[in-house]
Design brief:
The protein is mainly alpha-helical and 308 residues long. The N and C termini lie far apart (179 Å).
Length: 308
């Protein structure tokens, strides 16, 4: 294939390109200088922004005694949904207003915006507190840290120390709101328990009055010791029966011992013999008979009538 002179491809002509650029140099240099001047002016006039971060760990403050069901120690674990819900709750205007009030007047001056024309354009009233709160809210960023139970409170300001104070104020305001919510729940629970206790006291008083009425009708009167009279009498009878059984057992043991001594011919060993006159005379006659039998046994045989 052959190329003609008109359709032959031409290479890049660097000298012509350089001369064309040089001929239009003012359209390149002037915009570049203007952009540099604008950027330099912006850098020189706009103040730097500092971002401070405060971290808050979400913890479950329930103990063993405050859980509704003590058999389940992990009944209220803080999950990811709870962390996201707490992060959204921390972005409420009440928390931001509380954090703004914690700052000094010098710190709050940074969030003041101009009135006049802005009020006419926006149609809002010239309320500096609302404007400060709106400007303050634009500097706030609250979000949970990934895969943790930590909330990050970020605050941006033109002053490094002010940014740190703003972040700390946000965290403290959030913690105060949590404590206030817990206190409100505790007060509500205390009030409910107080009402329940009063109702139960009334029911107990009614039940006690009915019990006393039933005792009066049934004759179940209460004795001096606080026990019903029939119950007290029954306990006394039971005690007397136990005492009688113990005395019977003791007498039976003594009688068995006396029988054994009589069989063995050791009646003298009985302690009651020394105190009983009849038993003493019986013992003396027994001793005399034994002596007479011994004396006759020397001369007479056992079959003799006198020995018998």
């Amino acid at each position: 294939m052959e190329w003609s002179d008109e359709t032959a491809p031409r290479g890049l002509d660097l000298p012509r390109l350089a001369s064309a650029v040089f001929a239009h140099k003012r359209w390149i240099i002037l915009p570049t200088v203007a952009a540099f001047a604008v950027a330099l002016g912006v850098v020189m006039t706009v103040k730097p922004r500092y971002t401070a971060t405060a971290k808050v760990l979400l913890e479950n403050r329930d103990s063993y005694f405050t859980r509704p069901d003590k058999a389940q120690p992990d009944a209220s674990v803080i999950d990811d949904i709870t962390v996201m819900s707490e992060a959204e709750a921390a972005k409420s205007p009440e928390v931001e207003r509380s954090a703004l009030n914690r700052l000094t007047a010098e710190d709050r001056a940074e969030f003041s915006v101009g009135g006049g024309l802005w009020s006419l354009i926006s149609g809002r009233s010239d309320d500096s507190a609302d404007r400060q709160l709106e400007a303050f809210g634009k500097r706030v960023e609250i979000y949970p840290q990934m895969k943790t139970r930590v909330l990050l409170f970020e605050f941006t300001s033109v002053d490094r120390a002010r940014a740190a104070r703003g972040a700390n104020a946000l965290a403290e305001a959030f913690l105060d709101s949590q404590r206030s919510a817990k206190d409100a729940e505790t007060k509500a629970a205390s009030k409910w328990l107080s009402n329940e206790i009063d109702a139960l006291r009334a029911r107990v008083a009614t039940a006690e009055s009915k019990v006393e009425e039933l005792r009066a009708k049934s004759g179940l009167l209460t004795g001096a010791s606080g026990v019903a009279v029939p119950s007290q009498q029954l306990s006394e009878i039971v005690g007397q029966i136990a005492t009688a059984r113990a005395a019977e057992a003791s007498a039976g043991a003594k009688a068995a011992g006396l029988r054994n001594l009589v069989r063995a011919g050791r009646l003298d060993d009985v302690g009651a013999v020394a105190n009983d006159e009849s038993l003493r005379r019986y013992a003396d006659s027994r001793v005399a008979l034994k002596a007479q039998i011994a004396e006759l046994g020397r001369t007479l045989l056992p079959g003799h009538p006198r020995m018998k």
